[in-house]
Amino acid sequence: AKWVYNFGAGKADGSAQLRELLGGKGANLAEMASLGLPVPPGFTISTEVCTHYYANGRSYPTDLESQAEESLKAVEAQLGRGFGSTEKPLLVSVRSGARASMPGMMDTVLNLGLNDDTAAALARETNDERFAYDSFRRFIQMYSDVVLEVEHYNFEEILEEYKDIKDYNLDTEMTADDWKQIVKEYKARVKDVLGRDFPADPKEQLWGAISAVFGSWMNQRANTYRRLHGIPEEWGTAVTVQSMVFGNMGNDCSTGVCFSRNPSTGDNHFYGEFLVNAQGEDVVAGIRTPQPLTLAERENGGGELPSMEETQPEVFKELCAIREKLEGHYRDMQDMEFTVQQNRLWILQTRNGKRTAKAALKIACDLVREGVIDKREAIKRIDPAQLDQLLHPTLDPSAERDVVGRGLPASPGAASGQIVFTADEAEEWSKAGKKVVLVRNETSPEDIGGMHVAEGILTTRGGMTSHAAVVARGMGTPCVSGAGEIKVDGKNKVMLANGREFAEGDVITLDGTTGEVMSGEVATIKPELTGDFGELMGWVDEFRTLGVRANAETPLDAQTAVDFGAEGIGLSRTEHMFFDPERIVHMREMILARDPEARRAAIAKLLPYQREDFTALFRIMNGLPATIRLLDPPLNEFLPHTEEEMQDVADAAGVSLRALELRKAELDEANPMLGHRGCRLAVTYPEICEMQARAIFEAVVAVKKDGIKAIPEVMIPLVGTKAEMDDQAKIVHRIADAVKKESGEAFEYMVGTMIELPRACMVADEIAETAEFFSFGTNDLTQTTFGFSRDDAGTFIEEYLQRGLLPADPFITIDRDGVGGLVRMGAEKGKKTRPDLKMGICGEHGGDPESVRFCHEVGLTYVSCSPYRVPIARLAAAQAAI
Ligand code: ADP
Ligand code: MG
Ligand code: MG
After folding, report:
1. Per-residue model confidence (pLDDT) at position 588
2. Helix residue spans in 705-837 (DSSP H)
3. What is the sign, positive or negative, of the torsion defined by CA atoms of 226, 227, 228, 231?
4. Catalytic residue numbers?
5. Residue 492's CB: how many other CB atoms inside 10 A?
6. C-alpha–C-alpha distance, residues 210 and 95, integer Å
7. Does domain 254-355 have CATH number 3.30.470.20?
8. For residue 147, what is the DSSP state?
9. Number of the ligand closest to the Cα of 283
10. Which residue has the least CA distance to atom 24 on ligand 1?
11. Disulfide check for 71: which of 43, 123, 138, 507 has CB 3.0–4.6 Å away?
């Protein structure tokens, strides 16, 4: 079998098509080599080797070694250098690269092939001892960390101490002799820790690094990242071995990262950062603050340092040409890594760049306008989950801001929360229900868990492409990076900003759009839904066939839903209307009533409130349909608890406290979620259904007078048998007839049901004889199908997910086979009886992109979700249809 794919000198075995085999990095290196771009030659060991490695007790296919040697020889021949040579030594990097980009999650080793002899040879050859030993010490540190598991603090300690003694501030002050000395001390430390020498044999180094990279596929942080991003373990990583180019050979050398368009705003401006006389990880690690690539960027507040456009205009021009070429080739915004070695440009990586939701929209719309992609492609490129970022509040420009510091606007949006100084604390505090802002000098991949739960992230070091910035943008978490004037002392848990001290737990606000850091919490405002957002959502509606409605009961929710483009209300939970203090007394009075008379009296007091609610809702919906669900939850959710509340109810009902207490005890249920709830309430207390139906129809008549046509869909909850449905539908029709007669007005309405019990799915054909519409209540259906209590599942679901016993939380993403199977059956049976049956889904799944796709496939009429998720559902529905 072929395990190894070469690239370099204008040709390659692989291409961008072979991403599954070569990983994103390897595939794109091959593609760039074929395009004739300046890529240092090398080869990629395929992901199949990774699979083999794990399937065979961490061992390799027998012919891998010979194939790799062959490829290494080809590189040596191309460059006229030798791996391990003491004349012209070849150094390589060993790089990880999975099919999906997992920035910083796996390991990479640079400058491999160095030992005392090859380092001396490199120094002689380049006539630059400082460079040779700087590379050597970097290699020892990286290799020890990644392959030998000697932690990096060992080396940082040695270097810090050395610089202290020499009274140096920056690494740039270190001389050749200094680095030589450091190399000695590093090697001694490795021997101290491991009890054996640092490996000098380049071959041993190479295979050690290759194994470590394959091994890093299963490290803790890579596992976490995969879980958060739904990347399957089976994919594996590829390993690329590539000849080194050097950005650390002097002041005409540098290393950097650039984007073909701005990843934060989406503006069609070349954007990037670089560090002079530096290597690889330096930019990302935030060791020094980088320089801007373009003049425009520097003038736009990019700092004091000159841009590459000014210092190396020739190289800059070349980079600009590559930007054009790669963006044109991939037809998408590119994130590129480059190194300049003595004024010569090398490209080390390209990929479709991660971007903020705002940038994603702008870039997709711009590319359509530029004629590069079509609308379908634009729609497919927006991650529905990412849209969420745009639908949430930003800082109110008129609110007071107590600005205490400033950094780079690394990931937009506003966030307030309590300061924590470590990722672990962020996780703990957030588990305890607190909102936190993670404050650090810099972040590293181990911090991923804490970054995920934080409202916002603040770092004092690093640029726009630092780890914190990249990860935060990917997660849609607001982030301010490189806030250099702010001092963070993580050990003592203090942050010093503008002469003020902030402790753990103090509240701050970040504006990831401007880079401001503020003391306290700052007011926010609603997002802007026009411009690119409006345009793309317009395209979305051209393609989708699935309707999108919202779950809403308050006028505010209903208005938000309409603003976000909902085509109706799919679920209005009437019980939410009863929690108002003015009403709850009468609600309780009704629940605790001893007999139908008393109940009717209490209900009569609720009627005007309900009518008002529905009138308001119908006005906002202005002709759009609204599904109104009759009272559903277990009544004990409304029961009074305190003595005072009990007394209020007793007064309102005109009964004694003692009598009320007895009645309350009677209502106690062992398992209320499976108890007296849903349509069972109105089967036993038909007055409830009568009152609610009357309120609905009287509201219809009321708005009709103002020329508004209301289309109510009266929904009976938790039906399990046709008999229940018949019983309730009869009441609703009777009341409708009565209201028509009383008012002398005609109106349309429908009576349907929520399908949320397995039995209802089984007999959906029978139920559809009476029900004019179905709404699959997938929250309860999940609960009753799995037998998982929604309120208690938290205690074990997390472990199920971690151990792979469930692919996803079934309360978030629909369980296609089980719960989904019942939905499919219910839908098919319902249609058999009533071919034009209107079918929707309500519940959390209505706003989950994966579940929306399922609903499209099953042929439902619409999904209904919370108002803020309406745009997400619209986009997901369009993607399902394309
Ligand atoms: P990651 O996936 O974490 O970005 P990479 O494999 O891209 O890891 O390596 C990180 C950095 O190391 C690159 O951005 C590049 O600057 C540097 N690097 C990798 N290979 C080479 C090489 N052959 N020559 C010079 N620098 C390299
Ligand atoms: Mg990289
Ligand atoms: Mg339900």
Report:
1. 86
2. 722-743, 758-762, 764-770, 778-786, 794-802, 819-833
3. positive
4. 467, 842
5. 9
6. 8
7. yes
8. I
9. 1
10. 244
11. 43
Q: How many whole angstroms separate alpha carbon 336 and alpha carbon 330?
A: 12
Query: Residues lining ligand 3 (ion), CB within 5 A?
Result: 756, 777, 780
Query: How much is the ipTM here?
Result: 0.96
Q: The whole model's pTM is what?
A: 0.81
Place of tokens 């503020």: 518
Q: Output the residue whose Cα is nearest ligand 1's atom 15.
A: 280
- DSSP state letters, 15-29: -GGGHHHHHHHHHHH
Q: Which ligand is nearest to the CA of 335?
A: 2
| Confidence (pLDDT) at 306 | 93
Read off the DSSP letter of residue 146.
Answer: I
Residue 348 CA, ligand 1 centroid: distance in Å: 7
Number of the ligand 1 atom closest to the C-alpha atom of 105: 3
- Report the alpha-carbon distance of residue 271 to residue 31 in Å, rounded: 23
The angle that helices 596-621 and 555-563 make with each other, rounded to 10 degrees, is: 30
The strand pair at 494-497 and 344-352 is best described as: unpaired
In this structure, what are the phi and psi dihedrals at residue 531, rounded to the nearest 5 degrees? Answer: 60, -140
pLDDT in tens, 388-430: 778 767 888 788 899 999 998 888 889 999 999 999 999 999 9
- Sheet with 254-259, strands from edge to edge, namely 291-292, 271-276, 254-259, 334-341, 344-352
Residue nearest to atom 27 of ligand 1 (CA): 280
Q: How remote is the C-alpha of 318 from its chain's centroid?
A: 35
Binding positions: 573, 629, 756, 777-780
Q: What is the pLDDT of residues 293-309, one digit of tens each?
A: 999 988 887 678 899 99
Q: Which CATH superfamily is domain 4-243 in?
A: ATP-grasp fold, A domain (3.30.1490.20)
H or E stretch at 804: none
Half-sphere exposure of 114 (CA within 13 A, CB side): 26
CB atoms within 10 A of CB 304: 7
Note the pLDDT of residue 166. Answer: 94
Residues 146, 109: contact at Cβ < 8 Å?
A: yes
Give the chain's residues under pLDDT 50.
none
Q: How far apart are CA 399 and CA 497, in angstroms?
A: 21
Q: How far is the centre of ligand 1, averaged over its atoms, from the C-alpha of 515 (Å)? A: 28
Helix axes of 19-34 and 47-55: crossing angle, nearest 10 degrees: 150
Domain-by-domain residue ranges, the chain?
A: 4-243, 254-355, 393-525, 544-881
Q: What is the CA radius of gyration of the chain?
A: 32
For 475, the enclosing helix (H) or strand (E) is helix 467-475
In angstroms, the CA 375 to CA 308 distance is 36
Please name the helix (run of DSSP H) or strand (run of DSSP E) that holds residue 629, with its range, or none.
strand 625-629
Tokens 């969420």 locate to: 388
Question: Which two structure tokens, joined as six digits, stand for 703?
Answer: 């708005």
Whole-angstrom Cα distance, residue 74 to residue 77? 5
Share of the chain above pLDDT 70, in %: 99
Looking at residue 390, its pLDDT comes to 82
Q: Is 310 exposed, middle or buried (0-12, 13-18, 19+ CB in 10 A)?
A: middle
Q: Domain 544-881: which topology? A: TIM Barrel (3.20.20)
- How many other C-beta atoms lie within 10 A of the C-beta of residue 161? 11
Six-digit token string for 251:
């002041």
From the options 1.10.287.3510, 3.50.30.10, 3.40.50.300, 3.30.465.10, give the CATH code of 393-525.
3.50.30.10
Q: For the segment 195-254, what is each residue's pLDDT rounded down to a tens digit?
A: 999 999 999 999 999 999 999 999 888 888 888 788 888 999 999 999 999 999 989 999
Helix axes 129-143, 153-166, angle to 10 degrees: 140
**Alpha carbons 291 and 281: distance in angstroms, whole number:** 15
Best residue among 44, 105, 108, 274 to mutate for probing ligand 1, ranked by most atoms within 8 Å of CB:
108
Question: Which DSSP string corresponds to 250-300?
Answer: STT-EEEEEESS-TTT--SS-EEEEEET--THHHHHTSSPPEESSHHHHHT
